[in-house]
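Forwarding these from the shared drive since the link keeps breaking.
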Amino acid sequence: MDRTGRLDRLRSRMTADGVSQLLLSDLLNIRWLSGFTGSNALMLVSADRTVLITDSRYEIQLAEQTPSWIAPVISGSADGDRADDHIVGSLEGSTLTIEADSMSVAALESLESAIRDAGRPVDLARSEGLVADLRRIKDAGEIDRLRRAARIADAALEATLTWLRPGKTERRVARQLEWEMAERGSERPSFETILASGPNGGMPHARPSDRQLVEGDLVVIDFGATVDGYGSDMTRTIVIGNQPTDVQRRWYDNVAAAQAVGVAAIQAGTALRSIHRDTHGHLVASGQNGVYQHGTGHGVGLFIHERPILSSRIEGDVELGMALTVEPGAYLAGVGGVRVEDLVVVTPDGCEALSRFPKGLVPSL
């Protein structure tokens, strides 16, 4: 992956926004720019210098993971120096911009204290989403990792189908699904697996419970695998016993048709909000009860819910290289739920579906 190109894009954005020095505290933004995966880091970016600060636990890892254009700094030595001291010592101007959407109040107060102790006349400015906006567009290396994660998820769900039978608990089947992903190379689930059967499916973000699957249950399965930090995201709804009722078929068909409308709407240059409008509107027009109130989808990358969020309030257009989910659903309290979701990447011809597991209450494999 071209990390130098990412840094160039960030510096161009900084110049456009009037940012001379940017302090990154979001670990995923730091990983995206540098490749460093440690759990403690700060990165200072200026026009001609990039400094990455971590502690002694990661000294070897820092040297192995980061490119030569990063100046590594290890804090917490025997002298008791702080990361903030290194930040202040590396400043080249009188203004420092922080990531206001990731830096904690305590961290901000510590930085302000270090600035006062150093007697430096530094003004702190705040920025939100500067790097996150750049991360919306995936490069070839990122798309490859997303595709591989989706393939793992497809295969893992197929291997887990035999566990979807009466008497098995939601928790047991969910753990089997996660094991199947791990066996195929997933680093970890990309988020907490949702496997909700029967009435539990009426909760969009239900957690697997000890409820046993029952013949005729609708089961909502929302899950993903991870490859090199990049996660997949897919939802399928399956009936236990292969004999859905007419009501269940109609419910599923309504949601699946709306989802297909949303995927078809993804074209470079299309207004992002129109994807939500078309998908949600189609499901409402079908007469389906319990139409979803959450967003229609979201970006996916190093974080499972990245920008953009597909809702009625989102600004901007679909762009080439975006990785997006389309996930309408319908939920009835005490009855159950249906959700269908694919992860797609925007291409010159529309979009490519990375999720390939067959749709249908009884998937045809």
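-- next protein --
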Amino acid sequence: MKKGKPVADANLRDTENVPLVEDIDRYFEREVLPYAEDAWIDKKKTKIGYEIPMTRYFYEYQPPEKVEDIVERIHALEEDIAASFNKLFAEEK
């Protein structure tokens, strides 16, 4: 307490995402106070808005590439690199 007001411990500070349709104080009493009875809300820092989970709404699953295709592509790259090295070192002689 400082001048009769509670002082927040920065190490214990936390945030909650409260659904827009729910009253903040009721949510706080039901979801926070039973677990942290000395918790309080700093009304000056309360923000009202909406969070859009982009992944949930816009992500389209793409199955991973087959292992055989990856191995084939790596093998082709290795052959190309080996050919480039052979060509490079053959020209130096």
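The chain is about 40% helix and 0% strand. The chain has a mean pLDDT of 89.

- D.
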